[in-house]
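Late entry, written up from scratch paper. The run itself happened at the end of the previous shift, but nothing got recorded in the book at the time, so transcribing now.
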Amino acid sequence: MNDQDLLEIAIKAAIAGGIEILDVYGHDFNVEFKEDRSPLTLADKRSHEAICEILEETGLPILSEEGKSIPFETRKNWKRFWMVDPLDGTKEFVKRNGEFTVNIALIDENRAEIGVIYVPVSGWLYFASESTGAMKTLVSGNEKDTIEKLITTANKLPGNDFNSRLIVVCSRSHMSNETSDYIQRLRDSGHDLDFVSIGSSLKMCLVAEGKAHIYPRFGPTMEWDTAAGQAIVEKSGGKVLKTDSPEQVRYNKADLLNPWFIASRIISKTPAQ
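Output as recorded:
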């Protein structure tokens, strides 16, 4: 399969996962808790199953948050594989604020090369590949809207609605002292900034769109939280770099915990990190 075929399958899988999520979202549901006290719902499980059923058509391995118990000794030999978060932002799902997503990325040689983020409540679909660049479109639910049509009618990112003020986007549910300190350093370096809080990988989407200039993450995230978003940010002309070195965030490490990172677009002034 070529990258266009893989992108189409990833989009199909993300939408299928979103359908399962919305079916649960529209009813009462129970919340379980994992060992790390993060929430888990039936929507996570059903989305995972729907996505994996479709991605398995490609014959590539799948590493999903809900099926993550694959030893490094096995996956270290994977050249290309799918990285999946079937429901990113479960806390936002439980709060019923709509700020949750389905994330699917194709990892190639430890880099996120294809990214798909679907927002089930709004229907917005973000995707990126080497051939398409970063794109955004609306999934209407019309059966005539084929995957091919969604791709060909999507809008290129970033958009044209840049703001002259520096827009910093941070997590709605996970704000750390280090993040607050970084934002203060931005202010101290002379930036006139605005601040936006939003859940899940929507923070990466705002950076890719140009609606936010910088997303600092001085706190824990897992590889499946960021891979799809990183592909979309980078294909839109942005960067996702470690906070302690000018290195791109990479994937399929022995420890699936991400380093601290900053996703950003070009700005005229930057504070010391």
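The CA atoms of residues 81 and 107 lie 5 Å apart.
(Scratch paper discarded after transcription.)
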